[in-house]
Amino acid sequence: MYLQFFGLTEAPFSITPDPAFVYLSDEHRDALAHLLYGVGQGGAGGFVQLTGEVGTGKTTLCRCLLEQLPEDTHVALVLNPLMTPGELLATICEELGIDTTGKATSNKALVDALNGYLLEQHARGHRVVVVIDEAQNLSPEALEQVRLLTNLETPKEKLLQMVLLGQPELRRLLRRQDLRQLAQRITARYHLAPLDLEETRAYVRHRMMVAGAQRIPFSRSATRALYQRSGGVPRLINIIADRALAGAYARETSRVGAALVNAAASEVQPSEDRVHSNPWPTVIATASALLLLGISLVMWGPDVLRRFDVQDPADSRSLAGDSAAGQSVSEQIPELPGVRPVAAVPKPEAPVGGTSGDSVSEVEPLDELDTSWLEIQTSRSWRQMARQWRDEEDHDAIRSACNGIAGTGYACLRESGNWSRVRRLGLPVILVLSGPETQRLLLRGVAENHLLVGGDEDRKRISKQDIESIWLGEYIVVWPQAPGWPAEVRRGDSGDAVDIVLEMARFAEPPWNGGNDFDAGFEAWLMTFQSSHGLTADGIIGRNTLIYLMAPTIREPRLLLDAGEES
């Protein structure tokens, strides 16, 4: 219905399992690794258990597992375990191609036939795996029969590997006292959680691109609403997203916003309460944040929280200069209570243009890099960003902040723009790359034709043109921020947060030269500042405005630029 309208070649959010649309999050990759490890143990035998809520992708992972098993592996796949122990035995034998003629009424005859088959395959060096989906539906008697099958062995090796896939009820079932022997034989366990906010965005982008989309119609607020209403469950994401696209088509709009997603969710989840706007949680949260800020100031005192070494904006345009430049300026600005304390930071690195002592001198074509390099960069990106802030051990806090979790000690902003906007910000960012799967890459420097990317141990200079083919303009900005920093600062507010942003504004371009209150005059200046930086000119300091106010005062880390190039 809406395919032609959105320029799609096929439906992106069908709930039928299509291998072309498979998206594996970090969580799914870990789960698949556990399955492959458990099945690959060979002689260790025993059980492998994968659990997860309905719709989280267990069956999809099962298909991925079957595709990756060696050719000498024989698999019995049981999709409907609502059977008696005898029926289950017969089904396993039939799946393996064992002749059950005249044996179906005798459990002993079936076990003997299965044992003979297992010994034959073992002699050939083959492996046999039984995969039982929806295993929470197995009766205790059937589970005991399954356990007994793992007793089929040689003096050195188990002959049969069992994989149990099920909903969380399976975990509760296996805690029963009469099933403790089976529980003790489980050698690998994994519980599959729903997608987080970042993974939901990547999931939606992946499926849209596979379906032929030239642009993603879902706004950032829409994907956030999609995550909230689906709980990150892929099946529910598919259902709601499909209905939202249909709604956008009916309204003849090419943009899907949060309102459309919430309307779609309310239609497909009629038992769920509709989302209502309630101002009180925001009021309470803001009041709590300000209270925390006041408490933190009392606890920290005036001589800590030295995250930023402030420099004159004129000096910030030449990153190859002496790190002592602007030292006198830093003495004019008070410490910033919005930021957590850290140790002093060293001098900036050489410009991205390279110097005689720069070990990164050659531009490497992206297609000649090791194919796993981008995957490695994705897995390391949070730690690499933490290292830019000289706080490597806090990479989990950065990832949590970027997944929408407050109070981690960091703030995170997802932006869209071009190289000019990134250069203007002047801070290292994480590029969000498109492709079969979303990938992340730390950007540390920008020159006219190439980029400096990667961590300290594996940084590279790559062509801008190469990365532009897989970068659609999305990037992530991260900075340390005290948990008590208010979500917004606006006209009429007062206190430490206002004092800090006013002081930052005095080093902006153009600088604020007015008084010390967030009054109508400062609001008017702020709206001009926001417009000049491509921000929403609302006169309110949220995260977007805060980082642009803060950026000129940050000496390290900085986005490295070619010497002599204007930022």
Keywords:
alpha/beta; Rossmann fold; eight-stranded mixed sheet; 21 helices; elongated; disordered C terminus
Task: Write up this protein.
Helices cover 39% and strands 13% of the residues. The strands form two sheets. Strands 6, 7, 8, 9, 10, 11, 12 and 13 form an eight-stranded mixed sheet that branches. The longest helix is centred in the middle third of the chain and has 22 residues, at 279-300. It has helices at residues 26-40, 58-68, 85-95, 107-123, 140-149, 169-173, 180-183, 197-210, 220-230, 234-250, 258-268, 279-300, 313-316, 327-330, 373-388, 395-402, 419-425, 464-468, 496-505, 520-532, 543-550; strands at residues 46-52, 73-78, 127-132, 161-166, 186-192, 363-364, 410-416, 429-433, 439-446, 450-453, 460-463, 471-480, 560-561. Helix 1 (26-40) packs across helix 2, helix 3 (85-95) runs parallel beside helix 4 and helix 15 crosses helix 16.
